[in-house]
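Please discuss these two lines.
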Amino acid sequence: MKTHRRIRTILLTGALGLCLAGMLRADNQYPHPWFDAHPNPAWLGTAVELDAGISVDPDGWLEWMDWDWDNDGTWDETVAFGEGTISHTFTQAGEQTVSLRVTDNEGGWCTISLPVEIYDPADPAVRFYVNNDPQVNGLDSPGYGKSPETPFDTIQYALNAVDGTTDYFGDIVVAPGTYAEHIQFQGRHVILTSQDPDDPAIIRATIIDGQNATNPPQPTVRFDGSEDDRTQLRGLTITGGSGLPYPDSGSDSYGGGIWGAHADVTISRCIIRDNAVTGKGGGVCVIEGLIDRCVFYNNTAGTGGGGLSGCIYATIQNCLVHHNDSNGGAGGILNSTNGQILNCTVADNDGAGLENCDRNIITNCIVWGNNAAAQLVNCAHPTYSCIEDYTPADYQRVVGYWMLDETSGTIAVDAVAPCHNGTVNGGYWDEDGVRNGCLGFDGYYDYVSVGDHADFDTRDELSLVFWFQTETAQGYNKIICHDSSDSKYVVHILDDSATLRFQVKLDSGTYTAEATRPTGSWADGVWHLAACTYNKGAHQLRIYVDGQLCICQDCPREFIPYGDQGILIGYYGSSYDYIGRLDETAVYDRTLAAGEVGVLYLQGLAGYGLGLETNINSNPAFVDPDGPDDVLGTPDDDYHLQAASACIDAGDPTAECDQEPDGGNGRINMGAYGNTDQAALADADADGMPDAWEQA
C-alpha cells in the first residue's frame, strides 16, 4: 500500500508578527517560533544577537532554524537549532523585517517575522550635540543642539531635550571640555558619548566633574533604575562625585561617580576617577548591565568597594581597577555576587581585590598587589586567572571526590585528602565512562558506602556534582545522599526519569528543587553532568544539568543539621536503588558558581585539583604600574603586560581572542587587555620578535 505524505499549512497572525506553519503529518503539532534581538534598536554595523532559544515544539524537539535577514523570501542562513542563538550584522539602516523558520524532528515547520530597528550613526535626526566652549554656543540659534555648530552648552540640557517616553532616542555627542554638573538620565533611553570613545586622549579630555559636592552629596552621573540596555555611557571621564544616601543606610553616601539604582545599562570605555563616598562604591554603585573596558582609579569608599560595589548581576569585562581605597572591605570590587568578572585587572588597591563575589564567574582576570591579607575574600573559585598568593585548596574545598576509575575491586578511592574511600557493594565496573572507567548499578542493592565524617557536615554551603547515564525509567531512585535514614541532603531521579530532585534538610524542615526535562527524560543513554548547590546566604537551592542552570529555588536562611551516617552513592533501599552508571562524583563544602559548573562540564570532571587547575600565581609583569612620573594612581600608570609575562596566552582556551594582534596566537591573554588590540604578544626569549612569528 502506498503511503502519501500530507502537507498541512497554517496561517497565524498577531500584533507583533506573521506566523506561517506547515506539517508533514496531520497528527504532528506545529512548532512555536519566537526570537529576541539584542540590542534592538542597534547601530548600523553593530552585531545583533538573535536568540530563538524560547522557541518550542509541543510534541518533539527542534532541529533546524532558517533565517531570512531582509524578508525577500530567500533563506539566507540555515543552522542546527542547538541553543538557538545566532549573530548578524545588518548593512542597511531602518526597520528590518527578519524572518525565522524553525523545523521540528517530524519535519513540521513554522515561520515568524519580527522587526529589528537599525539606526545610522550618521543620521542627524537621532543626535544632539554638547559643547561648553563659549566660542561654539548655539543657545540663540535655530535648531539648538542639533548640529556641532549649534550645540547645547550643558549635558543636562541635552538630556532634558530627549523625549523621555521614546523607546529609543539616539545619541548625545559631547565635545572635549570639563562640564561641571551632576547629570540625571531619569529613565531616558539614549547613548551619551564623547566624540570618539575609541581615542584615550578624547576620553581623558571629555570630563563630567561633580566638584565633590557635600551639601548635599551627589553622584556625578545618576540613573533612576528604569533605564535598560538602550541607555549607554561611552568614552567619558567621570570625576568629583560624592554619592547619595543609600536607603536604610543612615547618612553614608553611596555611588560617588555613578549611582546606578540597579539600572540595566551599558557603561563602556569610561575613566572613573577621583570620586569619594562615606559608604560603598566610590566609583560605581549598583549597576546591573555591562561595564566594559573602563578604568577605575583614585576612588575612595568608607566601608567597601573603592572601585565598584553592589553590581550584583553586572558583567564587568576588560576593566582596569587600580589604586582605589577603602577603609573597610574590598578596595577593588565588592558585592558583585551573581554576575561575571571577565578579563579584568584588579591591582594595587587598598583592600582586597575582590570581596563577596561568591556566585560570580571570575575568569581570565589578574588580581595582584592589593593591600589586604587576601586578594580574594569570600569569592567563587576563579578560573584561568592570575591571583597573587593563590593556593588552590583555599578555593576548591572538595571534601570527597570519587572518580570511579578503578575498573575492579571493592574500593572506590577518594582522590582528595583526607581520604574517604568508599566500599563498593555489588555493582559492576565499566571501562566506558566519561573519563576512563565508571561504576554501574543494577537497581538491586548496588551502592557505594562512605563512612561518616565531619567533613560531610557542610552546614551553610553545599555542592553535589556527579555524571550519570541511564536508559531506565525510574520512579524515586536515589543517586547520592548523606544519612540514609534522615537524608540531610539527597538527589533522586523520578517521574520516569524525567526529573532530578534535590532535597536539603534545614533547621525548619526539608526543602526541594526539581529540574524536569521539558521533553523526554534523562533516561536517554547519554552522559549528563548534574550539579546541585545550596547556599545559606543566598537562601537558594540550584540544579544545573550539563553546565546550564535548570532551577533556582528559594529556601530559608538556615543550617543543614549534622549527620551521622556517612555518604551513600546509588542506594535508597529495596526497590528504590539507582539503575544506570555513575562517574566522577564529588561533594564540596561550598557553593560552586555557574562558571565553575560550566568548566567542569567542558572538562568531563566533577572535582577540582586533578588536572583541572587553571590558575597561576606568577608575577604578571606589568609594564610600568606607577608610570613615567613614578607616582601611583595617575593617568600614566601602565598595566599592559610585558612580553615575558606568564599571563600571555594563558587564559581560557575556549574564549575568543581574534581581536588580539595576530589572533592572539590562538589563546586569549589574562587581564584587562585580553582579546583587544592592546594585548601583548609573547616574547619569551626577549629578542624583540613575538614567539608566534618565530614559530611561523
Remarks:
- The chain is about 5% helix and 35% strand.
- Residues 1-19, 692-696 have pLDDT under 50 and may be disordered.
- The first strand starts at residue 8 and ends at 13.
- The two ends are 64 Å apart (CA to CA).
